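Q: What changes when adenosine-5'-triphosphate is included in the input?
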Amino acid sequence: MSSKVQAIRGTQDMLGEQAERFQAVVAAFGRVRRLYGFQRVEVPVIEATAVFARSLGETTDVVSKEMYSFEDRGGEPITLRPEFTAGICRAFLSEGWQQHAPLKVAAHGPIFRYERPQKGRFRQFHQLDAEIIGSDAPAADVELLSFADQLLRELGVADGVTLQLNTLGDPETREAWRAALVEHFQAQREALSEESLARLDKNPLRILDSKDARDRIIADSAPAIDDYLSEAAANFFASVTAGLDAAGVAWTRNPRLVRGLDYYRHTAFEFVTDRLGAQGTVLAGGRYDGLIEALGGPHTPAVGWAAGIERLAMLIERPEAERIEVALVPLGTAAEAAALRILADLRRSGIASDMAFRGNMKKRMQRADSSGARYAIIVGDDELARGEVALKDLTSGKQEAVALDGLARRLAATIPRGGHSELAAGLADHAASPSSSTDRVAKAS
Ligand code: ATP
Ligand code: MG
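A: The predicted holo structure follows.
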């Protein structure tokens, strides 16, 4: 006997509520994205490994431990994207999107990282992503943060989530601060964890967000960036915070929030909740003015964020389940062809409808009931001969004979707007509009 096939560790299969939650997050993202004028962008799931190695930096956890890299059949080093930003910046350069700068784009889709799977942490997960490429204005940071804030509000999770904000300054600031940090850590190097000792040369800023108790005391007494901020960097941060206040976006300062890589400048932020245990960051981002240069492009300031769809999906209220409005129940083979025609009519009118592929009346009625449909349309030969069908309200149990003619229009009007019926009502209006618009024209003239 052959053994059963298994899903790859850290991947997910979603059906029912889990898939509906996921979809609700993506749908909210789509709505808010439009409100803020961010264009949809699609980029490949695979990129040359160099795209991520150069942009993320060889010393980061993602590049050193988490990438899904392989050689394709032609021997090309390829990596499944561990984030969107690098691929979007690669496209910005190779597609000549510079002409559209500042470019506001949004993407969502699967992301791959070889991590230890646990709650809220997967090997294939999914991100929402927003980027503004080609603007050095603090207003771009404000807009991007407002977008994130409104998204979390629309998802109904804003209450449990805090925006933590920091500045990493400009290169001048960063150099001075980094030197002061190295001096501070060097003086107490015997007390640091092994991991932080290794970071001291390569990535001293990362010691600041170490979770190791040995590092915490030393990190908490480390010099703060504020004492090293250049005037320009201080002004930039002041503009961002003033803009957030003006836009009504709540934030708190977290001077320990850092990004290890040199190309991160100025704004760094995370939206954090305490409702997901150790996986509390739902959305994170910042300004990465040096990244496009790292990819070999011209100096191009940019700012962006990414959010984990699964983490947001766990936080939201359970969305209303998708359901069918109308179930067709044909009585016998002859009625089945008529039922198929009605089914096609309803669906073309935007009414979500279904008919079991086979089964007798009893089976199909049971299925209609359990599907959560609002109505069943029972199609019998005698009724058909009179140009009618039986419409059964599955909530009240009431049943009436209705004319086949105009059935779809009538149902579209009965099924209230909202949820999935919005489409039905919209299409019905549209279908009715030629006559009503001629009416209006006639009255106007
Ligand atoms: P973490 O500290 O949780 O590892 P990160 O700093 O690696 O997060 P980013 O690279 O900033 O995360 O990615 C942005 C968002 O993507 C995170 O805030 C989180 O919501 C989500 N995310 C990151 N890694 C995973 C994962 N392995 N599984 C599910 N979601 C993830
Ligand atoms: Mg991580």
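Observations recorded in class: The two ends are 80 Å apart (CA to CA).
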